[in-house]
Specification:
The complex is a heterodimer of chains A (359) and B (543). Chain A is mostly helical and 359 residues long. Chain A has 15 helices and 2 strands. Chain A has a two-stranded antiparallel ribbon with strand order 1-2. In chain B, helix 6 (249-264) runs antiparallel to helix 7 and helix 8 (302-323) packs antiparallel against helix 9. Helices cover 40% and strands 18% of the residues of chain B. Chain B has 543 residues and is an alpha+beta fold. Classes of the chains: A mainly alpha (359), B alpha+beta (543). Chains A and B meet through helix 7, helix 11 and helix 15 of A and helix 7, helix 8, helix 10 and helix 17 of B.
Chain lengths: 359, 543
């Protein structure tokens, strides 16, 4: 009905019919896809910013933004205009090149991951046989940008922030990776479309309830830590390090860090959705009596399923962020190396046994 | 009392004793000071409450108010004088009472009195390039001596620390040492930092994330309030007290009011005493709420911060109705309160009490029982009772270390002797003890208000006070318990309508000096949390 893959096909046939030159069609398509993703990236960031401000306001018995537009709807746009107009401050005694490159690396890492998400049936930038591996690999690039930002700023606060960030991301990348690996054992494929298709009848979290649930929880914690948001916001820790690694940035350079942080939240939720919650697959009950129910569920377009699940997970992450106090660096590392890491390794073993017995 | 007098006489045969003062007072010669001080410390007088520099025009002096952590009611006053005006020297007592280190720096800053043997003789509040000593009576406040800089001044030299010793021939020798070494990694936390609770500057030596040494720098908000008071009449002075510690303004003002009333012999009507006690306790709750909220914010929990501010707002509303102000309410005047309470006051306070009790439960659910918060608070920031007494850490932070130092119990004032309440004591001295103690004190404050609110006696809310208040010549000292500890007012009057010297004992100075021993070998994140748990207010220190 409201599926978008028809639209994609329509554009494809229209372009190849009217132009006919193969490479030119491809080129136009690439440009279109790139522009589309950039627009989606920006719009999602705006939505997430407003959502966070509103939701955290309600958590804190406040109203949040109300002045710009009805219900404060235009607030993120006003913010964006402000951030674009702000002066980019050039600081002496910084490493000029690295200082400028750092925000680009951060946003590039996040954008490249974004391109591989499967937003709906047939809507994705790229779908190749090592999709999941690619996502884990490329999303870790962001930490390089953060380290560079902290180092190049030539400021002790930023340096401490960057070092914390390095320690944190390198540690939590492990459990997140192993949690995803656990699911790869179940699915038998690294290709994202395969992983999602494998959940058409039942989401993986229901297919192997015990190990999948453990992996899901671990991934949520580790993923939350990778986004540098509270209670894992040590690299920024505004009450300790003023703003951590991006203390010295202003204007759009700061905006890049800000955007990447919000989009990383979306990406982590997106990966969790694809791997554990069936991606764009509707909720199905595998029983005779539930046929009607399944029909209704399947009627809802796939992209709506994807965004619905993702925003559900984002809501969870906001809830956690605005409730917990910040961890201390030693507690943070202890949580990873003494608790999450052993559990996820055992869980990987459990999943292997599970797959051997039941499938 | 007689015994102590004899004891001092034995230590210093030349000591003289003043009669008729508020506390037993001994005047000792500067040569005997250290002997007497050490002797008193041995006798259990381990708490140096206040150290006041004086300029008697013909001589300089220092007044020590000394008390004991065991016999809490006993206070002894020691006085030392020196007639030298060019380079007045008095031996240090900083090795006997640790906090004297900072108090002596203050006296040096204001009067130029050199404390021989003090390991650190930097100025405490003023810049090193300030010319002259502003509290001396012959100080000329001329712009040409200390011009407002029009060029970028040379960066402050924070590193070199001058100190003075007396060599074998009895001559004063100035020496300079360095605070840090060249290879040390020093991080300036403040003066512009979100978590220093004001313009405090902490020079922090770090090894990775571990703190090795903290050197606090004060004076960024020094307004010379004590100096300003010397040229004001007594009722005018009241307005400055709320600018000291803006979170417990009413209590500071209460201290000064009580001191003036005691000196002038003004009887405060019972109604005013009750109202003052209720207002003091409301302020204590508001202040503890801010303390709690800011500490949670320092630990990264912004939601808790907003919850604390929300409930404090209720108290602000109660203030506004009766006094018209919200933060600095300027409600107490000499002889009582400025106006009678609002007809709604009693009802609103009665509504507030059960509400606050419910909210404390919510705080416990939200924050106290949170495993991350508890994990961070229980294993850091320990201050032993001995350290607390030596550094004069009073108030909630002192009581969390097991030192019973509540002035409301020691020297009851206003209506505190008419109510039942417990002095909350914890023995651990850790961050979690201080955190819990504040919330428990809120409950005690509610209890006090509950007992008073229905029994406010009828009658005048203000005593008849002469239009011009003149205090009889003498020295007056008044302690009150504010939300951070023992706040004291010292007034020396010569019988004029202006005071000759005013000194406010700030409880916050002790709290900041306690940061260094508490934070050594802990993480930066702990420093922020511990300073939040101490809950100091900088304008109170800088004065």
């Amino acid at each position: 009905m409201l599926e978008l893959d028809k639209l994609v096909e329509l554009i494809q046939t229209f372009l190849s019919d009217s132009i006919g030159i193969d490479w030119l069609v491809k080129l136009i398509e690439y440009v279109l896809i790139g522009v589309g993703f950039l627009a989606l990236y920006a719009v999602l960031a705006l939505i997430l910013i407003l959502l966070e401000r509103k939701i955290c306001a309600y958590f804190q018995c406040r109203l949040g933004p109300t002045r710009v537009g009805p219900w404060g709807l235009l607030q993120p746009i006003a913010d964006m205009v402000k951030i674009l107009l702000k002066e980019i401050i050039h600081i002496d005694k910084t490493d000029k090149i690295l200082f400028k490159v750092a925000p680009f690396i951060v946003i590039m890492g996040s954008f490249c991951t974004f391109g591989a998400l499967q937003f709906g049936k047939g809507i994705c930038g790229i779908d190749f046989n090592v999709g999941l591996f690619y996502m884990i690999a490329i999303s870790s690039l962001g930490v390089v940008g953060i380290l560079l930002a902290g180092w190049a700023s030539n400021n002790k606060y930023t340096l401490i922030g960057a070092m914390r960030s390095g320690a944190q991301l390198v540690s939590y990348e492990l459990s997140a990776g192993i949690a995803l690996l656990t699911m790869v054992v179940l699915s038998g494929s690294l290709q994202l479309s395969d992983i999602i298709e494998g959940q058409a009848k039942a989401w993986y979290i229901f297919q192997a309830p015990i190990p999948a649930l453990i992996a899901f929880v671990i991934y949520l914690i580790a993923g939350h830590a990778e986004t540098n948001r509270g209670p894992f916001d040590l690299p920024e820790a505004e009450s300790e390090l003023t703003a951590g690694y991006h203390t010295e940035y202003s204007g759009i350079q700061f905006g890049f860090f800000y955007l990447a942080e919000y989009l990383n939240m979306f990406i982590i939720a997106g990966i969790a959705t694809m791997v554990f919650l069936g991606g764009y697959q509707p909720f199905q009950i595998n029983a005779e009596w539930a046929e009607g129910f399944n029909e209704v569920m399947a009627y809802i377009p796939t992209w709506a399923w994807f965004f619905g699940k993702v925003f559900g997970l984002i809501l969870l992450s906001l809830w956690v962020r605005w409730t917990f106090p910040r961890l201390r660096i030693d507690q943070l590392l202890k949580l990873e190396w003494k608790i999450l890491m052993p559990i996820s390794l055992l869980n990987l073993l459990l999943m292997t046994v599970w797959v051997l017995i039941f499938e | 009392m007689e015994k102590i007098q004899e004891y001092i006489q034995k230590l210093a045969p030349k000591a003289q004793f003043e009669e008729g003062g508020q506390y037993p007072t001994a005047i000792v010669e500067s040569g005997d000071l250290r002997k007497v001080a050490a002797g008193l410390k041995e006798k259990g007088f381990d708490y140096l409450m206040c150290l006041t520099g004086m300029d008697y025009k013909d001589s300089f002096g220092v007044i020590y108010h000394i008390s004991s952590s065991k016999e809490k009611k006993t206070v002894i006053v020691l006085k030392v004088n020196t007639t030298e005006r060019e380079e007045p020297v008095i031996p240090t007592v900083s090795d006997i009472w640790e906090i004297a280190n900072y108090y002596e720096r203050e006296a040096y800053d204001f009067y130029g009195i050199i404390f021989a043997g003090n390991p650190d003789m930097r100025r405490l509040f003023l810049r090193e390039d300030w010319v002259g000593y502003p509290f001396r009576k012959d100080f000329v406040a001329d712009d040409s001596i200390n011009p407002i800089p029009t060029k970028v001044p040379k960066p402050d030299d924070y590193e070199s620390v001058p100190y003075y010793t007396i060599d074998k021939d009895g001559k004063l020798v100035k020496k300079v040492k360095s605070l840090f070494e060249n290879k040390d990694c020093i991080v300036n936390i403040g003066p512009q930092h979100p978590s220093t609770h004001g313009v405090l500057h902490l020079r922090t030596k770090l090894e990775g994330e571990i703190i090795k040494k903290i050197d606090p720098q004060f004076g960024y908000i020094h307004r010379g309030i004590e100096k300003m008071c010397e040229s004001m009449t007594y009722p005018q002075m009241l307005y400055l007290t709320e600018r000291l510690d803006y979170l417990c303004g009413t209590m500071n003002r209460h201290g000064l009011c009580l001191c003036i009333e005691k000196a002038a012999g003004i009887e405060v009507p019972a109604r005013a005493q009750y109202i003052r006690t209720i207002f003091d306790e409301l302020t204590r709750i508001a202040s503890h709420l801010i303390g709690w909220a800011c500490m949670c914010n320092d630990m990264g929990s912004i939601t808790a911060f907003i919850y604390g501010m929300r409930d404090r707002e209720k108290i602000m509303d109660i203030y506004e109705e009766t006094a018209g102000g919200r933060l600095m309410i300027n409600y107490y005047v000499v002889g009582g309160v400025a106006q009678d309470i609002h007809p709604n006051f009693v009802n609103r306070v009665k509504e507030f009490i059960p509400y606050m009790r419910k909210m404390i439960e919510e705080y416990h659910t939200l924050f106290t029982h949170n495993p991350i918060a508890k994990g961070r608070m229980t294993d850091s920031g320990f201050l032993t009772k001995e350290q607390a007494v030596a550094l004069g850490v009073t108030g909630p932070s002192g009581r969390a270390s097991g030192w019973s130092c509540d002035v409301r119990k020691i020297e009851p004032y206003a209506a505190y002797d008419k109510v039942k309440f417990d002095e909350v004591l914890h023995q651990g001295g850790g961050t979690f003890d201080r955190y819990m103690l504040r919330l428990e004190e809120i409950e005690q404050s509610l209890r006090i208000i509950e007992q008073l609110i229905d029994n406010i006696p009828e009658g005048d809310f203000r005593a008849k006070v002469p239009a011009i208040i003149k205090l009889p010549a003498g020295e007056y000292y008044q302690r009150v318990e504010n939300a951070r500890g023992d706040f004291s007012v010292f007034i020396k009057s010569t019988g004029d309508k202006n005071p000759y010297r005013v000194k406010f004992r700030s409880p916050c100075l002790s709290l900041v000096t306690a940061l260094d021993p508490m934070c050594r070998d802990q993480k930066i994140a702990d420093l922020i949390m511990i300073s939040g748990s101490l809950d100091y207010v900088i304008p109170c220190i800088d004065r």
